[in-house]
Amino acid sequence: MQVFKFGGASVKNAHGVRNVAGIIQQQNSSQLLVVISAMGETTNALEQLTWAYLRRQADTDTFWQRIRANHEQVIQELADGDTSAFSQVYDLFAEVESLLQREPDPYTRPDQVYDQLVSYGELLSTRIVNAYLNQMGLDSYWVDARRLIRTDDSFREGKVDWKQTCEYITDSLAELLNSSVVITQGFIGSTREGYTTTLGRDGSDYTAAIFAYCLEASNVTIWKDVPGVLNADPKWFDETVKIDQLTYQDAIELAYYGATVIHPKTIKPLQNKHIPLYVRSFLQPQDYGTVIGNFEQRLPISSFIFKMNQTLISFHPKDFSFIAEENLSKIFGQFAEYGVKINLMQNTAISFSVAVDNRPDRLARLLAGLQEEFRISYNEGLELITIRHYDDRTIERVLVNKKLLVEQKSRYTVQLVVKDLGTHGL
């Protein structure tokens, strides 16, 4: 039994949907579960729609009509004149429009509204792909992931109840997979009370791992627009090298530090059941790509990870205390409460510094809760560079035209917080 995951870039238009359908068609017609993300930039567009709706902006409907028009264009190109097979997509359009016509409930948390609206990206894309597969004569079955993946009520970052989720998945899908390809959504789940949740941005990889773990899949394949796992992002490096084989440990480290090719939570469930993960190109589906598994050989080359738009924050106690357990406990408690992830941390006797993604809404609330006890300083617009299996030459390479603010080394990894002093290429 296999699990495939297709991201938004693979289904961004009608040509992409046809290509995905072709890849699915080449597989065994059963024992295949396919997880699909929202089309193209739909999640970003739905985020804009959500904030416009919550603020009651006059252009809320304009945001929605653009999203609807993009999906309708894909349907028109796929339907070949007869859109009846896509009727359930239009039902979803009606659901969104009904929601937008209602006043926002002042007692409902914004993050809960976010999950309810943004989840429609995956619901729409999977309905379209499933309808097209059936139109082609392939026996595929659409399944609502919200009925199978159970989470707590941490909206926008739902934590999975593994025991209940696996029970739902195996009870619902074990027999169905013997006769049909199953199409389902990435990124979404629901609470015990039935409220829609999301698993965090780019969480569709994680969804694929959840299904694979529960169904004890033979393998998982993530289909990307790159030939496999590269040692650096092509956006930042002119010359990159494809890594044919990665250990689970190296993959976890790369994902944890921000490698965008794999979601950080994806690897561990697969490692626990020794399920290999393939990263392959939907543009060149005949190519092998990269396999992540239980190998002995460590990463053969240096890998580079860039996180942009970072903020470096330093905390200094206002009283005569040092940065010790009590102060750290207060700081970490606030970071956890406001959902701010620390990408790097470093402390001295009298200061504690962290690098975080620049999310002004969350950071403002976080810093307000700590400013009574700490003097706080920060720098914005920085970069965090992580090199896995580094040497002096690789460090020198990434510091060209950079001002180094923080350096942190371990045996295999170095992290550098830098300020860009000018445009350049590597």
UniProtKB/TrEMBL annotation:
UniProt KW keywords: Amino-acid biosynthesis, ATP-binding, Kinase, Nucleotide-binding, Transferase
Protein name: Aspartokinase
Domain named Aspartate/glutamate/uridylate kinase: residues: 2-281
EC number(s) on file: 2.7.2.4
CDD domains for the chain: AAK_AK-HSDH-like (cd04243)
Involved pathway(s): Amino-acid biosynthesis; L-threonine biosynthesis; L-threonine from L-aspartate: step 1/5; Amino-acid biosynthesis; L-methionine biosynthesis via de novo pathway; L-homoserine from L-aspartate: step 1/3; Amino-acid biosynthesis; L-lysine biosynthesis via DAP pathway; (S)-tetrahydrodipicolinate from L-aspartate: step 1/4
NCBIfam families: asp_kinases
GO terms for MF: aspartate kinase activity
Family membership noted in the UniProt record: Belongs to the aspartokinase family.
Keyword Aminoacyl-tRNA synthetase: no
Membrane-traversing stretches: none
Catalytic activity: L-aspartate + ATP = 4-phospho-L-aspartate + ADP
Pfam families: AA_kinase
Highest taxon, organism lineage: Bacteria
